[in-house]
User: Which sequence fits this backbone?
């Protein structure tokens, strides 16, 4: 194979490897963002668990938080494995580039040495002139001059190529070392995360058996709270009826158009859903039905209206905090388990307006908002299908 063709193939190979590396960097950037989100979720759940760690009265919500954290840790380990594999592929590619560069450098050196050896004497200044003037004809002198000029150009080109190749080699070697160090750090991070996962699962098992003894008590209390809340909602709807709060709102058209676009009633970055809508199972495997979602937040979290409307009622719920119901035509949003309420019945409110503060249970030290969306009469819907993800 001629040298120019070999060089073209080498350059093309490097370009392909470079494009692959660029794709890997983009993919790794996306993976890093996903990993950071998971790490944020783990930090938040750890913060929320720390708020209740000293409480003697534990709850199923704490167990749900541990379950959520375990899922996040397992997902994080999967992401770390993908990043480690990607770095391994990048290291392999860099190794191939470095090997190709080293071979190219050796080839250039060998060819240059061979050519220089055969023409060394001719290139000396005295012999250079002698070679030209000793030609038997003008044409031969011309061709010798052209040859020597071409060789001089070839030598300069080879030297430049050698310098560029060496510089490129140094760059790729540095990248290789960086990739190896990054992989080693990720491997250590993965091992640390595996240890944390093991400890979290041990805590989960311990709490599970502690709560299992109080299972019936929790179920009775939860059932009482739900019955009381639904009774209050029915009474408020019966007293208030259906009223318009603006154009198209009597039918709920404006609100319905917001499906999938509504903001969260609390800061999305500071909240974890610990109870999902519909028929689900509690940590003990018992079937339960939630009319809304339960959102665990840090203490003192403010609650905002997810859409404009009118307050149909503010009522204290037995064994819980206050509930605020906001009308949006035939739709209602419900904000339950509030401590401080900043709106009154009949008040028109705007989207994003503060409604109150989430109540912290003095027994468990947990701060939980029960958020519901329903269409009268009593047709509850999954709030997660209404809010932005």
Assistant:
């Amino acid at each position: 194979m001629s040298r120019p063709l070999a060089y073209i193939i080498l350059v093309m190979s490097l370009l392909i490897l470079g494009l692959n590396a660029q794709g890997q960097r983009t993919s790794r950037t996306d993976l890093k963002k996903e990993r950071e989100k998971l790490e944020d979720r783990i930090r938040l759940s750890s913060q929320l668990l720390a708020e209740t760690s000293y409480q003697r009265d534990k709850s199923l919500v704490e167990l749900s938080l541990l379950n959520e954290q375990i899922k996040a840790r397992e997902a994080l380990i999967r992401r770390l494995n993908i990043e480690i594999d990607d770095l391994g592929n990048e290291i392999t590619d860099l190794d191939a580039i470095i090997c190709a560069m080293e071979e190219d450098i050796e080839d250039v050196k060998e060819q240059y040495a061979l050519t220089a050896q055969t023409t060394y004497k001719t290139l000396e200044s005295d012999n250079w002139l002698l070679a030209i003037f000793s030609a038997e004809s003008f044409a031969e002198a011309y061709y010798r001059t052209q040859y020597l000029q071409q060789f001089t150009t070839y030598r300069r080109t080879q030297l430049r190529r050698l310098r560029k190749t060496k510089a490129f080699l140094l760059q790729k070697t540095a990248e290789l070392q960086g990739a190896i160090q990054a992989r080693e750090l990720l491997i250590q991070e993965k091992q640390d995360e595996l240890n944390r996962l093991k400890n979290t699962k041990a805590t989960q098992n311990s709490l599970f058996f502690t709560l299992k003894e109080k299972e019936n008590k929790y179920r009775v209390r939860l059932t009482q709270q739900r019955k009381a809340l639904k009774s209050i909602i029915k009474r408020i709807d019966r007293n208030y009826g259906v009223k318009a709060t603006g154009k198209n709102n009597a039918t709920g058209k404006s609100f319905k158009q917001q499906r999938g676009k509504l903001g969260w009633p609390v800061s999305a970055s500071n909240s974890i859903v610990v109870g999902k809508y519909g028929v689900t199972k509690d940590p003990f495997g018992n079937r339960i039905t939630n009319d809304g979602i339960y959102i665990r937040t840090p203490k003192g979290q403010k609650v905002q209206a997810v859409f404009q409307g009118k307050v149909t009622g503010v009522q204290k719920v037995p064994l819980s905090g206050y509930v605020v119901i906001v009308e949006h035509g035939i739709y209602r949003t419900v904000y339950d388990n509030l401590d401080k309420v900043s709106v009154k019945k009949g008040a028109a409110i705007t989207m994003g307006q503060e409604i109150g503060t989430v109540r912290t249970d003095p027994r468990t030290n947990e701060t939980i908002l029960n958020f519901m969306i329903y269409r009268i009469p009593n047709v509850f819907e999954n709030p997660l299908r209404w809010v932005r993800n």
